[in-house]
Prior knowledge:
The protein has a two-stranded antiparallel ribbon. It is an all-alpha fold. It starts with a helix and ends with a helix. The longest helix is centred in the last third of the chain and has 28 residues, at about 215-240. It is built from 13 helices and 2 strands.
Amino acid sequence: MSPLPVFSESLVIHLAMNRQNPVGFRAALQSKTEEAGGKGRPSFSRLQFDRFQTSEKCWAHQLDSKNCRFHWRPALREQGEYLAIETAWNLGDNHWVRYFTFHGHFVQDYFNAVGGFRFSRWNDDNFFIDDYVGHPMMGAISMDIFVQNDPRGMSLEFQNSRVYWHSRLPAFIWSAIYSAEWKLGPVSEASVGNTGGFFYYDKNAHKFTNDTGTVGLVITPVGGWAWSVAEDLVDEHIITRLERKSHNPLYLFSIQFLNPCRGFANLLRFKAPWYRDGRPDPREKDYFTQLDSSKNLAHTKAQIARH
């Protein structure tokens, strides 16, 4: 697959419309947009294709800077929704979180909790699944929130290219900031539950602990980055194939368990879990993937080269 198929397509179209034999070149281009282009290749119009090429166009400077700006308001709203869900879960799930949140001096207890955070210690004495599964998923959801609000990254599927990796770097930073906020910010484990403000005897760990350590600050963004990239790979090579088997919403929902973080991030923006910025809804008649577009582009190039 070409790392940036839209760049090559733009060049092909430019050449096609400006050669001495425009009729022949337009005929080749017409076959790309109206025919299947070979067995197993769905047809799609250029307009349909362009709808899902926002990121490629931004990097190619085919869109003005205003259309390529990061969407701050929806991103902050969605991240706020996620923070509210996590906070509500902690309050509802743990009696002591509720007790220490609503008893005592809130501001003073919060600063005591921040001051008691053990930055010199890696392990926070929580369960392995919390630190090395739950926190990476938290980081991946935060990355997905950033990506789906970033025109420079929202329509990019996995590709080993400079543009793809550069688009995920600010998402990684966004995830790291959220991780720090969740541990030490104004609405965090330190303020809601006063984690770090006192020691207690943990029967599971068989030791006194205050449930703090740097593992969460590091694993959340780093593990989240790895999880997010892995979901991109699964989405491109597995989910796109499964989506062709049925258009039933329950079926489409069920296969999103292969992309749980992206599906959850979609729900935060009130989209279906299977929604993607880089391709149409699987229930649409003219469904295609970026892999399909690359195959059709290669077919178009071959046709144009023969004229």
